[in-house]
Write a structure and sequence with these properties.
mainly alpha; single chain; 2 domains; 0% strand
Amino acid sequence: MTELLIVLIAAHLIADFPAQSNWMIARKQNLLFLLAHILIVAVVTIVLLGSFPPILLAILIGTHLAMDAVKVYLLKDTIGSFLLDQVVHIGVIIVLAFAFPATLGQSWWPDILSPEDISIALNLLVITSAVIAAIPAGGILIQKAMQPFSDQLAADEGTGLSGGGKYIGYLERSLIILLVLSGHPEGVGFLIAAKSILRFGEINKSNNRKMSEYIIIGTFMSFGWALLVAFLSKTTLQLL
């Protein structure tokens, strides 16, 4: 059951984030683009499962399509709709993993790979899921959570690089994942200290309380999310 859960979550994260560009997301109100995304979900799931379980796929694809349609056509693009969408998808995956625990036994992968290779592949899927959840998915989550504060700063003219904050977030969450999974979580403390020193000069110079609070909130959100994903991933790896 654990192995199936790992495979289904990895397929979901791959299909929903790196395999779904901003260009496609912006056009999902067009039914063809919505169906194209669902097709990607189906293909990625089938490839990673190494089989074509009809009932599991029908439930997975049907609920994914229904939730995405509700989000696109009925809900606003907010942190609430993003979380609802992901909770529904992950919830369905957990139920399917419990309901169809023997699915991986029908896979064609054992005919191609050795047990050792399959074990390595599962570990790689856990790490891949952690990277996707922490970096692109985490970026979207934090951006939407910070949107009310971003709106308050919208009128202020900044001199930062275009997209600089996003890429700083990507880098810091990548480093946290790397430090925790490599067995050196103490390095996160040095990362926090280094960022604090660099940001202190910027905040002190600007003398802007709104910007100071915005940076602090965003930093704690970014670090907290990356640490949560890293520790969950490390625990999963220990179970394999």
